[in-house]
Records
---
Amino acid sequence: MTFSVEQQVLLWACSLDTDTSAPEWLSNHLDWSKILYEAMRHKILPMLYWRVQQLPEEVLHTIPPNILEQMQLDFCLHVSHQADIYHVLRIICALFSQNHIPCLVYKGPACAGLLYDNTMLRPFADLDLLIPQNYRDLAEKILIQHGFDFFAATGWVRDQFYSNHHWQYSYNRLLVELHWELSEKPLNIPLDCLWNMQQSLEIQDITIASFSLPALVLSLCIHAKEHCWNRLLWIADIVRWIAKASLEDWDMAFDCAQRATTEKTLGLGFCLAQHFFHVAIPEPYQTKIRGLRLQELQKKVQDEIWNHDPTFFHKFKLNFTLAETWPTRLQYLVRILEPTVSEYEMLPMPQFAYPLYYLLRPIRLGAKGLEWIYDKVK
């Protein structure tokens, strides 16, 4: 696959290449406005700014001053936002520790602390915390007592539309998600893979418990797959995982994936990292990944990464294809047809009318399908 020069800049920005000299293709013929836009869309602007700042002075002068100023401003805003999030994380960790609530921090902060030497280069917009389900009500009570607000609806609306596997809260306009399962069934990792393989780490002077490297990479691949891998940031995470993982980590990652019937999901993440960043995968696992026969699916996903946000139907096709057994596919279909908050927001009804949402859900999906077909024909 041939990358445009602008795409090469994005890949260079989030690669592990430590060479501070300017690549040959980095010239004054680049569309820096497009590069800046795509870097923001792919959530890699901090990495782009960091790499640009290390360029030789004569190369920096080829970048339009307004672009450099915008990158600097966006990076400063990013650092400020991350500081706010870490402040909230510090508060929650202290509260849960005082009340003996087990808690694993994952996604953004875990990636930053476990995979990135400079934690400020890994952006994240909110906090995701995993707790045992039997601590859910106590955790919520403590958060509410200390100024956290329900982010969404309460009462029966939350019980029906939000409580499958997590609740959401806000604190000073920052989102906190409290999970008791990693994701909705059937796309889940056995909880013992998470709790029995946890590790402690220190990030921004905060000691947190988080996933082990094997559980982390599987959770990253499941999350990215749900969104069709349409962010380079997620592939950059996998690249850094590969750089840090031991052979034991590889073994345990595939063992967890096999138990969760998500080996293809994990293998696809490694295939994308290898395609975009030419990382080396240890031979035993390279053979295992080849045996998953992901070449055709990988090509479709990597072609879509440069497009804008995927449609519902792109997400459905990828997730259905990666479901490895027919029972799992059936569970996924059932999950897709369950009413969501989107139906409630479209047509609020009282609790006794909740069964009607099972009729509204396929109607809404059908309307989206017709809209998608119309756009394709047009």
Note: Strands lie at 104-106, 127-130, 149-150, 166-171, 174-179, 199-203, 206-210.
---
Amino acid sequence: MTEKEIVKYQQLATKESGDIVSFTENQVVMIKESIASQLTWPEFSLFIAVAKKRGLDPLLGQIHAVKRGTKVVHQVAIDGYRSVANRNGDYAGSDKPLFIMNGKKPEEAEVTVYKFVQGQRVPFVGVAYWDEYYPGDKQGHMWNKMPKTMLAKCAESQALRKAYPADLSGLYIPEEIENTSGTVIMSKAQEVLEAIQKPTVEFTNDYIEADAEPVTPEDPTQERNPNLAPLCCDKPMMISKYDDKEYGVKPWYCVHCRSKISRS
């Protein structure tokens, strides 16, 4: 293990404000090497941060990070959902699932969970439809073996998210991840990660976008294409799509070293 990796593990093991659970350095190493070895460091750091903030333990199988191509999906086991609800102290149980059957397969499942709100036992209902969640015959072995159980999990997870949005929003159980079209539901945390990694500007043949404002050349006597950007890292800089408090309105931006230059 390199010194750089040791520092990263130590940082991830540090408990920060708002963390519900924390992990020792040895536990973080164990999670990275045995459970989340396929994740890059930014993806793994995000996974640990989500686990700590949501109070879910990867070592107990309560949350998993599954990589599908370039996407990372944070999956929570239904027991993890129930653990979060129970930890709040106001969870008041659930009713048994109700089904509308179509032959031997459930067409619809409904689950009601209860939560005490200002002393009242309030119901939260989740409804799941077979044609929206069944992943198809190729991936549907467990769905064909235990159709009611699988669809009821989806309905219960919906109900628990309604009851505890602050704790469970953006998290999904594995049974919800793929529908018949194979669409992957991406967690809000993953959207944040992509926003951080995605360049804030786009290249257009080494020139700034067509609506770019003129840039004053260093030597006023030389003519210059008003849309040609200054160079940084031997590459033309781009116009940021966002304003910057320090550099003003839509400054020049280098997508390589991320340095900025005011355009005023």
Note: The mean pLDDT is 76.
---
Amino acid sequence: MNVVRIDDTKVTADVPAGAGAGVVAIRVEELVTLVRADLPNAFTYQILALNSVTRAIGTDAGNDTLILVGTGFAPNATVAIGGAAALNVEVHSATCITCQTPVHAQGNVFVVVTSNGAPVQLPFDYL
């Protein structure tokens, strides 16, 4: 694990992969003095999920606005629709993304959200 001391009151750390969704405690321990602090319920793991795509049908001309609802969306999450990058992607929160569809031939495709390297998807239809 990568831990960096910022100053006397702050550290940063890479969060290890969780076993699943849920709240966990964090322990911070100073190695020289062995002073430690236990912080119960200090971090919440969220499982990445895409639960719904509002407007599951769009036109082949693109520019249809989609609202993606799920869990675990990182601020830098990306969206692809039918293999093409979505337009105007905005991650509003860990549970909501909006975007616009790119131009695409008619047919059944997938909306794919990739967050921290992990993809999740739901079907979408271009008419």
Note: Residues 49-126 form a domain with the Immunoglobulin-like fold (CATH 2.60.40.10).
---
Amino acid sequence: METLALLGLVSNVVQFVAFAKDLISTSIEVHQSSSGISDDILHVNTVYGQLSGFGAGIKMFVDADFEAQSDIAPALAVMRQLSLVCKVDCSRLLKITEKLQVNANDKSRWKSFKAGLRAIMEQNEISQMEKRLDATQTALTLHICTVLR
């Protein structure tokens, strides 16, 4: 029984060391960045900020073309719905990442550490939102191809 307890303890120590390594590296990255945010989160902000605008553009296109193209109306209706879902999900994701940013003029080590901890804690939700948006993008692409054929 002592062997199992020792194995459990070693497993917990390894998990803690991995968490601490991630936390410290993220905190250092935030502290050294000019934007007050890690490169990964900056990339998420850039990509999904653009995607949010693209989704709004698709919705405007679909709304303008909906009445004129009755043969593709079902695909346009789905595209309208998908673009709304995309915009909502992008907004939610951008709100999450906005909370992770440290003011570039006030980047103390403590604030960078807190931002790194928040980034690690929110990573699961960010990943889930990215998966949802990937599925929405795929479906939207298929419907765009249907309309363009």
Note: Residues 37-148 form one domain.
